[in-house]
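Bench notes, afternoon.
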Amino acid sequence: MKKYSVGLTALVASAALSAAGTPSAKSLYDLAPEDGSSESLPLTYTAGVNFGYDDNPTPLIGGDSALYGQGYVRAAFLSTSPQTDLDFGAQIGVIHYFDNLDVPGRSVDDTAFTASLNLNWTRRVSERLRFVSRNNITYELEPDYSIGFQAQRQVGNYLRWSSDSAVGYRWTERLATYSGIRFEGITFDDIPGGDRSLVTLYNDFRYQVSERTVTTFSYRYQDVSADAQVSDATNQFILAGIEHRFTPQSYGVVRGGVQVRDVDGGKDSSSPYLEASVRTQVNESFAVRSYARYGVEDWQRFLNIPAVGGVLYDNTDTLRIGVSGDYQLSEQLVFTGGINYVFLDFTERRGLIGPAAIEEELLNAYVGVNLQVTDALNLNARYNFEDLSSDAGRDYDRNRISIGATTTF
């Protein structure tokens, strides 16, 4: 690995000693089955506006810096009872760059619309049986690194979706299973060869060793469908793991094992697979969470390399690491920050054109502050840094700074 690897590994190892909080199973931060929410929230609306400066709004293709504005409206609702939890959220927004984003040989839209919708449902039929369904669809511009779909900022929007339904059954006081099916995928507006759709069947055996510790054994079968120019693939995951609650506010999950891979027209292979998540409320003011995942990903196998063009690779060994934290200095003032790191090793090139193997690594870091002015009005500021280092000449760095306000009603 390259310049960021050692320091970030040490940072995550340090954060892992702190442990975790309540899981919500919406990102790489949240790996364990949902415990369920304890308090209902009425339907609320939030509106926000931000203005900022972006010194590289069109990475990978060049271009000038630009000022931008962003606005959005979000609705959220949560209903919980002893038998049923229902969680709903929706958001629509727009991002507009006030400067022309056109670059030589290519026209780029100055305005991008965004939208998201999520619906999560849990039904506890009895003390033994429960049904869980988590669904989301997002049309967005900036990647969410904690989801693990993308490796870097692209030009143009993309649509990603996920629908995960499972049944949980406790066979004895200590033994339970979670069995389900997950549909997910991504479609890009401006990236040929980037679209993917995945279907995953899974079964988790869960054995409670103590009041705080659960051991797990998981099997997953995944079918990957890609664009016509990218070969399909199947993955099988055989994993063993442990979930431990260190304190009422600290929780950790780790699973590891083997990933068995079959690419149409390519080579069969097997490789290590690891995923982990740690969350903790250090004290009343400070909360930390972290994640790590290593395995072969299918999301980005077709690269557009300068002076070469599109090159297809069968395997993308990927390491993802992230740490985020919130520090509440007072009732009105909260500081936030985080780091996301991605390392990609592209191997098994198809065809004769292009590098036989490529390594890329991306660092994304941010800091922010939120000030509550009134019960309904908040002011915020944020700085974001992004840097991509690539063997294939796809390097870029990017700085963004923004200020804004939100109101809830």
